[in-house]
Amino acid sequence: MTRTAHVLLIDQVADWEAGHLLAELNTGRFIGEPWKVVSVAASDQPVSTMGGLRWLPDITIDDLDPTKSDLLIMPGGVGWQPGQEEPFVASAKQFLNAGVPVAAICGATEALARAGLLDNRPHTAAAKEALEATGYKGGERYLDQRAVAADGLVTAGPQSPVQFARATLGMLGLMSDEVLEAYEALFHRGDPSAFPVLMSI
Fold this sequence. Notes:
The chain has one domain (4-175): Class I glutamine amidotransferase (GATase) domain (Rossmann fold, 3-Layer(aba) Sandwich). The chain is built from 7 helices and 9 strands. The chain has helices at 19-27, 86-98, 107-114, 128-132, 161-171, 177-187, 195-199; strands spanning 4-8, 36-41, 47-48, 54-55, 59-60, 71-74, 102-105, 147-150, 153-156. Strands 5-2-1-6-7-9-8 form a 7-stranded mixed β-sheet, with helices on both faces. The radius of gyration is 16 Å and the shape is globular. The two termini are 20 Å apart.
């Protein structure tokens, strides 16, 4: 059965931050089989990205059901602000409570922090100071790493889209440790020696 990933499209979504992860899931080129990628927005109207694109959502947030999903992806973006983010954060909480993995990067981590969802989970973000500005209580669980996967949640800062993809694919068990290392070596460090490992899949 084809697995499904849902990606949240908040206004002015950072289109590049989940790009590596979405490409690997949608194509299946290094994970064996492609996933179905479903975009989710607050309404059925197109969402403008920070890169100037207009993305048409597949479903609205009201139709998002964690029992029909295998992963929730939360890219960053300008729209992660009180007054806009609440329905998306509520869905993330539903996913985590249901045991369905969530992957959040950049501004989405700050939204989770504002909701108290990082208070008791190991996590990272753009910077510790960014999360502290939200008033959250999870500072002792902050890790100064490019990406953190723990308790069904992946977090990363905007400078780490490749590590975000690697951590999520690893948490899902879609790549071996060897392939994960080769993936980061190629797409982050430009190491051509990683090609043979990836091409052997």
